[in-house]
Design goal:
heterodimer; A: mainly alpha; B: two-stranded antiparallel sheet; 52% helix; globular
């Protein structure tokens, strides 16, 4: 396994652990009606945790292996993976738009209660994290299976 | 969708060129060793520029390195 793959795998594990924990706790808190201030604090804590863990793990990986420059294959894999992440984000956004607008356009039904209020920023962040995980997973896939 | 099938003789050419290592070829071409491995195993088709650089590293013509196998329908 190359240094790039190890680095990607480490980022994936950190993101899944920290944000996975954040989203489980936050969705429970929002559904229980806790104030947004607590969620904001949890979000800041999650982001700081990711930054600190990334610095430690990536520094360790860099010290254990020789530095490696990117080449055309790395850049191609990165572009293809970002495209996949963008597709994922777009699909999520369109689902979001449909959920919040379609019921109010054609019927008198209110939009889904899960797509409004305190859940909006949490679900938007979830969408971005899912897109980011898609980018990392597809990069790992392309490195393993080839392009 | 049609996909291209490009085979190569990089492994054989490396051994015929003083048993050149993948790392040495990567440095001569200006890519990473992982890219050379991917090209050798047919997991990545390099750009025209990299293909020319690989051929230049072995002092051979490009069609001595890469063989186009036609379209797989």
């Amino acid at each position: 396994m190359s240094t790039t793959e190890k680095s990607l795998l480490a980022s994936l594990v950190i993101t899944l652990l920290v944000f996975g924990n954040f989203f489980v706790d936050t969705l429970e808190a929002v559904l229980a009606g806790e104030p947004m201030a607590n969620i904001g604090t949890s979000l800041v804590a999650a982001v700081i945790s990711v930054i600190i863990l990334e610095i430690i793990v990536q520094s360790l990986l860099a010290s254990l292996s020789a530095s490696q420059k990117d080449d055309e294959r790395d850049r191609l894999i990165e572009r293809m993976s970002f495209r996949n992440g963008y597709i994922c984000l777009s699909v999520g956004m369109w689902i979001w738009i449909a959920q919040t607008t379609i019921p109010t356009w054609w019927t008198d039904l209110p939009s889904s209660p899960y797509m409004t209020g305190a859940l909006v920023p949490v679900l938007l962040l979830l969408l971005f994290v899912i897109a980011e995980v898609t980018v990392t997973v597809t990069r790992l896939f392309y490195y393993r299976r080839g392009i | 969708m049609a996909s291209t099938s490009i085979k190569n003789n990089i492994r054989r050419l490396r051994f015929e060129t003083n048993e050149m290592t993948q790392q040495a070829l990567a440095e001569a071409v200006g890519v990473t060793r992982q890219t050379i491995i991917a090209i050798e195993h047919g997991k990545y088709s390099p750009s025209l520029e990299i293909a020319f650089r690989i051929a230049a590293a072995f002092h051979v013509a490009m069609d001595d390195v890469f063989i186009y196998g036609g379209l797989d329908q």
